Amino acid sequence: MTRTYGAQSMTARLRRVLMRRPDAAFGAADPQRWHYTSQPDLARAHEEHDALVALLRGAGVEVLLHDAALPDHADAIFVFDPALVTAAGAVILRMGKPLRRGEEAAMAQQLAALGIPLLARLDGDALAEGGDLLWVDDHTLAAGLGFRTNHAGITQLQAALAPQGVTVVPVELPYFTGPAACLHLLSLISIVDERVAVVYPPLMSVPFWNLLVARGFTLIDVPEREFHTMGTNVLAIEPGHCLMLEGNPETQRRLQAAGCEVLTYRGEEISFKAEGGPTCLTRPLWRD
């Protein structure tokens, strides 16, 4: 039987993805409590999310919807964060943002229903969010060490993934605007082709920068103004074919100049207000 799960890459052909349509909790989100720029308009959020789903399906991606009840979990639309899906099964993470606790169990139930085995579950004082986890290649996982992912989380991830020959590389993250904000490792970098990434250098760790250079990566700088509009948050549908937020024209131009095909989506409600881009809104379940 052919395996239909496993996503140990940021760029291999995206076959199947999990998404979550904005619900009442998202529409009722208090901006100060959830660290949103303003309260989302739920009707418009539905329109944007439906259009994004249609765009991905039009690109040949199978989109499945995560519809488990999660009252008072506005951030649950960002399905990238509660789990990691490997070729050996799912690792259920433990959210660093206290308001997001509970998403992990719902995600575990959803993945089990899809026939994806449980490889490991973080516990105790371990913290790790998907937004801090970047596959540099299929045997190297970079893990941002910051407010959302801690040493215990990285240690447990390494123990879970070592039998699959995966090395977890810690990458220290800066304080930036503090613990209330969300600065993930993937806030600073997206890999869009085999050895091509968009990056925001001013906040990147020097050792991590050097690692990427040593691996032969071409690094495309995102200008400061577009870092603040999530120009660094880019989802690869396949190598050199990617999806990003409207409103980042210079980053889009630089990607195209590097040979990438770029799709864009409108995300005033589901992305800009809630500070989460296309990678955050999608949990890859299967990449070739």
Model description:
The chain is α/β, with parallel strands linked by helices and 288 residues long. It has one domain (14-287): 5-stranded Propeller (L-arginine/glycine Amidinotransferase, Chain A), CATH 3.75.10. Helix content is 26%, strand content 25%. The strands form five sheets. The chain has a three-stranded mixed sheet with strand order 2-1-15, with helices on one face. The longest helix has 17 residues, at 42-58. It is globular.
| Class from helix and strand fractions | alpha/beta
Task: Count the DSSP helices.
Answer: 9
Spatial strand arrangement across the major sheet: 2-1-15
Approximately how much beta-strand content do the residues carry?
A: 15-25%
Topology as H/E string? EHHHEEEHEEEHEEEHEHEEHEHE
**How far is the N terminus from the C terminus?**
15 Å
CATH architecture: 5-stranded Propeller
Contiguous low-pLDDT stretches (5 residues minimum) are none
How many discrete structural domains? 1
Provide the gyration radius in Å: 17 Å
Name the helicity range.
25-40%
Task: Report the CATH topology name.
Answer: L-arginine/glycine Amidinotransferase, Chain A
| Biggest beta sheet summary | 3 strands, mixed
How many extended strands? Answer: 15
Helix and strand arrangement:
Blueprint: E1 14-19, H1 24-27, H2 31-34, H3 42-58, E2 62-65, E3 83-86, E4 89-92, H4 103-113, E5 118-121, E6 133-137, E7 140-145, H5 151-161, E8 167-172, E9 189-193, E10 196-199, H6 206-214, E11 218-221, H7 224-227, E12 235-238, E13 241-245, H8 249-257, E14 261-265, H9 268-272, E15 283-287
